Amino acid sequence: MLLAVEALAVAVVVVNGLVAPPDVTVTGLWTLAVLTAAGVVHTEAARGVERMRRRVDRTPHLDLSSVWTFAAALLLPGCLATAVVLLVYLHLYLRVWRPSGFPPYRVVFSTTTVVLAVHAASLVSGLGGGDGPFGSARGLVFVALAVLAYGLVNLVLVVAAIRISGPATTWRRAVGHRDELLLELTTLTLGVVVAAAVSRFGPALAVLVLPPLIVLHRTVLVRQLEEAASTDAKTGLLTAAAWRLRADLALRTARHSEGTVAVLLLDVDHFKLVNDRYGHLAGDQVLADIGAALRAEVRDRDLVGRFGGEEFVVLLAAADSGDLRTGAGAVADRIRRRIDGLRTEVATPDGPVVLDDVSVSVGVAGYPADGADLDELLEVADAALYAAKAAGRNLVRHGLHAVDDPEERPGHGS
């Protein structure tokens, strides 16, 4: 797919240059130079933090350089807009991506997706009429459509590449979080502001967008670094420490609002056999697939973490106080059944092997029935997990409404 997209980008640029040769003017060249220079300054201002982020997030899924490339799509002929993309991304590669060890082929693919997005946006905005994108109300409508065209082309190509290169990646994870999509939309909107300022007052006005954009970029990068520090590298879930912090906050919220929460503690059955038989890389793939299954079976507001080794933990926020046992148990059993049906392909010295016998045991505890704080809930969930293991594994056991004697808790449950 990568080669096909790159070939398409080259073809689009060549055909556009032949069918509609660019009318190169001094103003056009000056605009090209200013947008490129602004992109370079923007990259240099956030380079240190950006290079740190690339070490933990090696996919250029989100790129605020679209401010300059989208403005170029609105202001310049296709070939000159392509030149802005190539120059800005060449500088990004030399100053950020290459020092971070980013694979060149992925840089080329990212650049070509932006080239195609620029040409799509340029084509759509050009349908607004001969007065330019900001010359009439009709032109502004097509500017809005150009924003959608740019965003959709870039998103579809990147998501398709992620899914093809990693079939286990869920669509939701490939598309990205809602906040990331809103940030991309905000970036394109700033591109509209740049283009409008340049169109009305000249290219030099583009520099006015630099200060707020640099502040926005650095703020976003710092937040992403903090998020990366709280994310388990193998599964993409919260680390144990990050999960505890957020779970404590959710529990305090439930206590304040007289609500309820449930804690699920999961352990992969006979996981040591997977590592011993197929190697630790195979075990890591199993853990990653289980992590993806967990995310798919809970809501965005629920907290999912890797608790250590082959243990996982889930906090179900604001569970229904009227039917906590049934609701939490249903989620736990749905998770158990989904993992029981997983088929994970792992590489071995003898060739690929499909593992279809992975299962988990689950212990469930709920607030306030089983404890007043997180440690108490985890203790009860751990006892219930022990009961599930003792009863034959691949089971769900509850600590909800357990008897007062902790030694008897593993004997109770559904």
Secondary-structure blueprint:
Layout: H1 2-19, H2 26-45, H3 47-56, H4 66-75, H5 78-97, H6 104-126, H7 137-165, H8 171-175, H9 178-201, H10 210-229, H11 240-256, E1 260-268, H12 271-278, H13 280-297, E2 303-308, E3 311-319, H14 324-340, E4 344-348, E5 351-355, E6 360-367, H15 374-390, E7 396-398
Parallel strand pairs: 6-7
Antiparallel strand pairs: 1-3, 1-6, 2-3, 4-5
Helix pairs in contact: 1-6, 2-4, 2-5, 2-10, 3-10, 4-5, 4-6, 4-9, 5-6, 6-7, 12-13, 13-14
Describe this protein's structure.
Helices cover 62% and strands 11% of the residues. It contains 15 helices and 7 strands. The protein has a 5-stranded mixed beta sheet, sandwiched between helices. Strands 4-5 form a two-stranded antiparallel ribbon. The longest helix has 29 residues, at 137-165. It is elongated and about 80 Å long.
Describe what is shown at a glance.
The protein is α+β, with helices and mostly antiparallel strands. It is built from 15 helices and 7 strands.
Helix content: 55-70%
User: Rg from C-alpha positions?
Assistant: 26 Å
* Average pLDDT level: 83
Given the helix and strand composition, which structural class is it? alpha+beta
Estimate what percentage of residues fall within beta strands.
Answer: 5-15%
Lateral strand order in the biggest sheet: 2-3-1-6-7
Which segments are poorly predicted (pLDDT under 50) over 5 or more consecutive residues?
A: 401-414
Largest sheet: 5 strands, mixed
Backbone shape: elongated
Distance between the termini: 49 Å
Distinct helical segment count: 15
Total number of β-strand segments? Answer: 7
Give the H and E element order. HHHHHHHHHHHEHHEEHEEEHE
